[in-house]
Amino acid sequence: MNSRRRTKYRPAAIILLVAANLLPGLSPAIAAGEAGKWRYCLPAPRFAEPRAPADDNMHFSADFAEAEGGRYRLWGNVLGQRGTQNLFAEQITYDTENETAQAQGKVRYRNGDRLLFGSQADMALGSETGEISGANFWLLDKHLRGRAEMLYIEGPEQMRLQSTLFTTCDEGNEFWRLKAARLQLDQAENVGIAHHARLELLGVPVFYSPYLSFPLAGRKTGFLIPTIGESSRSGTEFSLPWYLNIAPDKDATLTPRYMSNRGVLWEGEFRYLNARSRGDITLAYLPGDKVFGENRSAVSINHLGDPAPGWRTSLRYQEVSDGEYLNDFGNQLNITSITHLESRAEVSYRGTDWGAAVMVQKYQTLDESRSLTSRPYARLPQIKLDMSTLSIGGGLELDARAELVRFDREAGVIGNRIDIQPSISLPMESAAAFLTPRLGFRHTRYTLQRTAPGTDASPVRNLPLFSLDSGLFFERNLGGGGHASLQTLEPRLFYLYVPYVDQSELIVDENGVSRVFDSSQPLLSIGQMFRDNRFNGADRVNDANQLSAVLTSRFLDEGGRELASASLGRIFYFSDREVTLPGRAVETQVASNWLGEVSTHWTASVSSRLSLEWDALESETARGNASVRYHPGPRSALNLGYRFERDRLEQSDISLMWPLWKGLSVMGRQRYSLQDSVLLESVAGFEYESCCWIFRALKRRYRVNVSEEQLSDTFWFQLELKGLSSVGRDVESLLGRDILAR
């Protein structure tokens, strides 16, 4: 090493390592592929730099070096390092006293995820400030790159650029880029400010703003990118959202949505999220809808909270101005299936030995032609208490549930109901079998108003219940190195006895008609066979003298994951079922229909389900539901579905999103009523994804109900500029909800 004057090195200030050759690998090393959002992009540049020493000193290595006082001149593959700072150049002059460096020739500076290039640079390495001329830059964590005539580093998280442009696209293939006369990037404040900003698509200017403020991550107060759409119901649509970043845990959005056929729909949303609660409030108002002829509005409030250990709160309030609101303005593909809007508020507590909940609930019926006496009851309120299973000695266990609820409605009988259900059981279990006798009692008492003259306004029902649940577990090792390593065989018998008590006069309205507040009879299923009441709700408790028999077999892999299961079952009745819902006939069959269920998940990408109800008396299928799903990747899925209910419906449902070749995918869905020979809904579209942009287009045709002659049309498109924003309707959320995540 040549030197003008001998100098005693001060290791605390600088350590010089002089080598004939710097470590190999200084040329850019291309990372071996990046998954996810940037999977179609060339990887960002990487450099194999040696690990910096652990102390706080600035360390340099170079081919040649000379020193004069506290000033050093280094040339030939010069690399300076301290912590996450790396400065590389062909030549560097370094002042140890001020910790300043002047670099020339192939300058490269990196600090964390910030990677800068230039022809020359003046740096204050101690304060992490400086300037680079002819700069190129990368923000590696955001896959953002650009260039500037001058780049000023103003601290570890601030940069200021002049005559700059940036993009997330690959070099030489810039679909979009943002140019600005001046640009400030402040990662500490999460803000970017551009002066005289111009957005270009394929080199064509499409947007200009003299001043533009945008967030580097997440969002900040200001206008969001507008959305555009087309609908046969509403015409051309255009919306321009205004976003308000209130606090780290609160924000709001105000969106005027212009529809050429209707007018302007004003939509507002407020959201909050903190350690103890989360929720949102959405309001919408359309004055003087030119198609509907009236004002239109909607309100939605959602809240979930856990204010203290064991406590939970929830609120869901929904209301629309009319029954057609969701069909005209809803954004979900399956919105036409909604017939009622539920509103409810609940507070619950769950302790070690008991739990309680208080709830109020009401419904808005969207079909306003339905009579008042056929609409759901409101619960004002419902109070529930339940006791955890309590061991009382000798293997006996005690549990109990109680409910007090007030049912209200505009028309018809209303009233209060108390329902108490204690039970005692004796579980006997081993690894291969179980037997559980249970004896229960159900006391139900009503206080009714608006009943028929001469009827009991305070009826009472008392019922004992007895059940005997039993099962065996057999298993065998399959061996042979197959996918499934274990098969089980699980027979189960469930006997239920409940004596008959006439319940047709429990609730009688002012016209002498038998009613129920909340009872219904669900479709029979394998799980339903092991319940002590075939009705939902407490207004009806079945009379029963029956035996449920179910045989289940499962296939498991070595890790215990279920690969497939099949169940076959039937209920055998030893007496008629005289307790029925109002207007239903006594059930006299000696056995239920056969029920079969099969599910498979042999691989991570293929799954299927089949449920079948076979009517042995008629020798035909009463009900069936089949589905097959092929989901080989996060952006590909094929779903096949079929539903059948004798004399009621027969529908097919096919949906898919499938890649054709690199970046191009097709998407679609068709729901068809085979019974009516009517198309219910069709969705067709495509998605093209490149490195830095995605375009999605989708056309939906649908009927609100089968009787409609004409299909309604809606067209959605979305252009997403990765790392910047998107334009158009949110097609991606629809895909995730209705096709990809089914």
Total beta strand runs = 46
Structural class computed from helices and strand pairing: mainly beta
Alpha-carbon distance between the termini?
Answer: 70 Å
**Form type:** elongated
**Oligomerization state of this entry?**
single chain
User: Low-confidence segments, ≥5 residues, pLDDT <50?
Assistant: 1-35
Helix share of residues? under 10%
Number of helical regions: 2
Radius of gyration: 35 Å
Strand proportion, as a percent range, falls in over 45%
Round the mean pLDDT to the nearest integer and report it.
Answer: 87
Q: Major sheet: size, sense and barrel closure? A: 26 strands, antiparallel, barrel
Write the layout of secondary structure elements.
Elements lengths: L13 E5 L10 E2 L14 E2 L11 E5 L1 E5 L2 E12 L2 E11 L4 E12 L2 E11 L4 E11 L4 E11 L3 E10 L8 E11 L4 E11 L2 E11 L7 E2 L3 E5 L3 E5 L2 E6 L2 E10 L3 E11 L3 E10 L9 E10 L5 E10 L4 H5 L10 E11 L3 E12 L12 E16 L2 E13 L5 E12 L2 E2 L3 E17 L10 E13 L1 E4 L8 E13 L45 E13 L5 E12 L20 E7 L5 E10 L4 E14 L2 E10 L3 E13 L2 E10 L4 E12 L3 E10 L9 E10 L3 E4 L2 H10 L2
Parallel strand pairs: 1-4
Antiparallel strand pairs: 2-3, 4-6, 5-6, 6-7, 7-8, 8-9, 9-10, 10-11, 11-12, 12-13, 13-14, 14-15, 16-19, 17-18, 17-45, 18-20, 19-20, 20-21, 21-22, 22-23, 23-24, 24-25, 25-26, 26-27, 27-28, 28-29, 29-31, 30-31, 31-32, 32-34, 33-34, 34-35, 35-36, 36-37, 37-38, 38-39, 39-40, 40-41, 41-42, 42-43, ...
Task: Note down, in words, how this protein is organized.
The protein is mainly beta. It has a domain at 14-210. Helix content is 2%, strand content 59%. The strands form 3 sheets. The chain has a 26-stranded antiparallel barrel. Strands 1, 4, 5, 6, 7, 8, 9, 10, 11, 12, 13, 14 and 15 form a 13-stranded mixed beta sheet that branches. A hairpin with a 3-residue loop joins strand 20 (250-259) and strand 21. The radius of gyration is 35 Å and the shape is elongated. Mean pLDDT is 87; it is low at 1-35.
